[in-house]
């Protein structure tokens, strides 16, 4: 149930804020080059259990990908289902997924210097949604889906602070901080505690990234406590 905000500029380049929700008991490694043999030059946030990545980036290629889970109708026994952890890594290596897939549902946001798109798998069909110019949000349903409470509540706020100034990171972090005034169990919260909704996941960190023809920069900021807002260093 992660959340991503992206601003796609004209004629090119994107700015991104990605908030990661995961079970705090599931071990993970911070942004780093954890796959030097299989994915040289790729950095990402690694899931130790499966060895994959939630977010991955290749600075030299100018590609970044973020994985978000979504509901599905996959009709396979669990012992035949493959991990989704390779998707972001394969994407930034230039290999996007193709159907059919033996995986549970996902939204895979792929960002390059000139364009961004969302590949969505529902267990039966893989669809593509180009991300148009402007500010957009995605979580566990469609792009800018008004039925997703956090998108309905906060997309107008992020659009009011389009990432065009040199202070875009600070402006977006201020919106994120303002969103944390909501209880983390609120459907409209971005910094989340999903346990009351039947999931063990809580917000653990956020990443800020800029992708363009002049390069790719991505940084990670961990929350001091799962599901509770804090600034780096707090």
Structure description:
With 234 residues, this protein is mainly beta. It is built from 3 helices and 12 strands. It has helices at 87-92, 149-159, 168-179; strands spanning 3-8, 14-22, 28-32, 42-47, 53-58, 63-69, 106-111, 116-121, 126-130, 134-138, 202-212, 215-222. A 7-stranded antiparallel sheet has the order 3-4-5-6-7-8-9. The protein has a 5-stranded antiparallel sheet with strand order 10-1-2-11-12, covered by helices on one side. A hairpin with a 4-residue loop joins strand 8 and strand 9 (126-130). It is globular and about 45 Å long. The two termini are 25 Å apart.
Short description:
The protein has 234 residues and is mostly beta strands. The protein is 12% helix and 34% strand.
